[in-house]
Amino acid sequence: MRGEVRVVGAERSGGLELRTAGLAARGLPEVRVTGLPPYLGQGWARVLGAVAARLAAAGPVLPVLVDLDGGVVLRLVPEKEGTLAVAPPPPPDGPAAAGVEAWRRDVLTRLFPEAVS
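The structure corresponding to this sequence follows.
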């Protein structure tokens, strides 16, 4: 899938928005995440790349939950314009009082532990 799907980003008033570009050419919805602090941008670009690979492999039957390495589970929520938003899994595994930003950092720490040091 290399070269066929890209992850593009733009700064918005509410934070960084990342989005795939190229899944629609395969008849699949594009995936996006919004409201990211800029320091999480590179890591989440890798996450969206992994999600895109899983969606492309799944074909026309789209999963609601995507299991990535390290026991990381992401939920895909339909949004406007036929896109899918990446969200935390539903409780009890989802974010509690810590919130979505803490969950986003935890996803990166679990998927890419080498980046922590």
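Helices lie at 41-58, 100-111.
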